[in-house]
Design goal:
By secondary structure, the chain is an alpha/beta fold. It folds into two domains: about 220 residues, Rossmann fold (3-Layer(aba) Sandwich), CATH 3.40.50; about 45 residues, no CATH class. The protein is built from 13 helices and eight strands. Strand 2, helix 6 and strand 3 form a beta-alpha-beta unit. About 35% of the residues are buried. The mean pLDDT is about 90.
Length: about 280
């Protein structure tokens, strides 16, 4: 299948990506590289996961990883002390359930794998202390129903983290987002919603408190950047416009100054499909 066509499975698309010399960094940034154990450990050590750990601090027990993919978040949750259930409908040994089982066995971590879709969670009410959904909600055809299911399976006082969700400023931006997405043309399946759609679905599901993390507010949303690499990119961009690199580097060495600039930039950030995350508490 050519790169211009649609692959029939996500596994085929990822295998093709791995074989493209110019896509190696994308594969690595997306944690699609092998060995899977190394990719999972790199995610566990990443600034993204360290930011997630701060959010789940104080929560213990059972965790559900919804749309678990090849299991990097399941691995991180288990390494953080949770008993993990990984929900993943794709049985693939490269990007799906079989890959997670192999990872759990090799790492000797408590990860139970269930092959089912996120819109219908095969679990009893109040089964989990934490539900983690990394880049999951924007794929949902029934966003309201999916949020209700995640709320249902959480214990009272439980936490849902819906991380790295694509957001649109207006519905007409959807095609522009899909056209520029680096992977959508390979297999499809990408989507994005208005911010109010996510918040409406989460509120309608019954969550008592919802914290919204904006695109430049948290390392969780900076893919493929970290705060450090984003700072370097900003310095490089400004230096091309005004060639005083030492001054820019000195100014942005201050975390306060850099975060203030990012906060200002948020007001002008209307990129189609930019990433938001949501931290949701069940009463």
């Amino acid at each position: 299948m050519s790169a211009e066509g649609k692959f029939t499975t996500w596994e085929e698309a990822v295998v093709w990506l791995r074989n493209q010399p110019d896509r190696r960094q994308l594969v690595r940034d997306a944690f699609y590289d092998d060995p899977l154990m190394d990719a999972a450990e790199r995610y566990f050590q990443s600034s993204e996961w360290q930011a997630v750990k701060v959010l789940i601090n104080g929560h213990t027990g059972a965790a559900l990883d919804v749309g678990a993919g090849r299991g990097i978040a399941s691995y991180a949750l288990a390494r953080s002390g949770f008993e993990v259930t990984a929900l993943e409908p794709d049985g693939s040994a490269i990007v799906g359930a079989a890959a997670i089982r192999d990872l759990a066995m090799r790492a000797q971590l408590p990860i139970d794998v269930v092959e089912e879709f996120s819109e219908r969670l095969p679990f009893a009410d109040a089964s989990f202390d934490v539900v983690f959904a990394r880049a999951v909600l924007h794929h949902m055809r029934d966003l309201d129903g999916a949020c209700r299911e995640m709320h249902r399976v959480l214990k009272p006082g439980g936490l849902l983290i819906a991380a790295r969700e694509h957001v649109l400023s207006k519905e007409s931006d959807l095609q522009a987002f899909l056209d520029q997405h680096p992977l959508h043309h390979l297999y499809g399946g990408e989507h994005a919603y208005l911010l109010d759609c996510y918040l409406g679905a989460l509120r309608g599901a019954g969550f008592a408190a919802i914290e919204t993390l904006a695109p430049l507010q948290s390392p969780i949303n900076l893919f493929p950047y970290t705060m450090d690499t984003l700072r370097s990119a900003v310095v490089d961009r400004l230096t091309r416009m005004v060639p005083i690199a030492p001054l820019w580097r000195t100014a942005f060495a201050s975390q306060y100054v850099f975060m203030s600039v990012l906060s200002l930039a948020e007001r002008f950030d209307h990129r189609p499909g930019r990433l938001y995350s949501f931290v949701c508490h069940k009463a």
